[in-house]
Amino acid sequence: MQYNRLGTTGLWVSKLCLGTANFGLGDSRGFHDWGVIDQKAAFEIMDYAMEHGINFFDTANVYGGLDTRGLSEEIIGKWFKTGGLRREKTVLATKVGRIFEQDQTDGPNNCEGLSIYKIRRHLEASLKRLQTDKVELYNMHKHDPGTSWDEIWEGFEGVVRSGKVDYIGASNHDAWEIVKAQSVAKSRGFMGIVSEQHLYTPLNRLAEHEMLPMALDQGIGITIFSPLFRGILGIDMRNPDKHQRTAEAEFHFQYLQKQLSEFTDLCVEIGESPANVTLAWELRHPAVNSIIIAPNSVEDLEELFRSLEITLDESVLRRMDEIFPLLEELNPYVPRTINRR
Length: 341
Fold this sequence. Notes:
Layout: E1 3-5, E2 12-14, E3 16-19, H1 39-51, E4 56-58, H2 71-80, E5 91-96, H3 116-130, E6 135-140, H4 149-161, E7 165-171, H5 175-187, E8 193-198, H6 211-218, E9 221-224, H7 247-270, H8 274-283, E10 288-293, H9 298-304, H10 314-323
Parallel strand pairs: 3-4, 3-10, 4-5, 5-6, 6-7, 7-8, 8-9, 9-10
Antiparallel strand pairs: 1-2
Helix pairs in contact: 2-3, 3-4, 7-10
């Protein structure tokens, strides 16, 4: 395994981060692949990841399935309790800010947002499910335009000072939102945001315009979610139906077959799988610290380690630019539903 510092912090995280949105067997309505892995398989994946050097695990309080949100955190908590220093070896990230339907006690506050009330209340609930007393990274699941940054930072400063959180991260934010947040944090004498979890793939390169340059300038670490674009960039077009696709992935696949065929041809030429070439392409960017992968099996996870050994030469990068050009707007063949999560 290879490691990077998370932004400009002193915290080292594995370049491959284990995503757990697919843990839980909760009802996903067949549209996406959240909550499709049972506890036994999840334990096997986490054990294999840890044994092979992955120290960075990502989850969220809403993962586990549409009607069983929180189940992913519960599975991780049960895994920690099996011992073997599993908790001590894990840099754990979870999230706050989305609607948590199961919490009926929130009343009118059961809504998206980052109030002090929600930050503190939902952290306590996450810690209980995770069976731990702290998390290393607490991410804002999305920007809250209706709450002032002073209130947001008051909430996050409190949980950091209490020792229940080490670092604060962001997800699904725009570059200007992070710069504004950092300005307010600095005025309060607080570290602020150390990392941004963002969508950046060959099919969606919008981050190259503002987010990635800002991250390098401001010392913000970038972690990538859905690096294979819901699995689409892992498809070998010589056998496109080898793996079952969700309804969402199938919807996008129908728009992208020409590009995916050209990409498969390139990967065949260099003797690597589309999934590993995609991850290697993403990891090449100096702003990217880690990529969140969500394998459905140990075999899937094992295959992705190869991406860390691949160096793409200039000729391959030029071909990638031709197949997946940098555009001013989202790739016109990609419907916008996947741009945020």
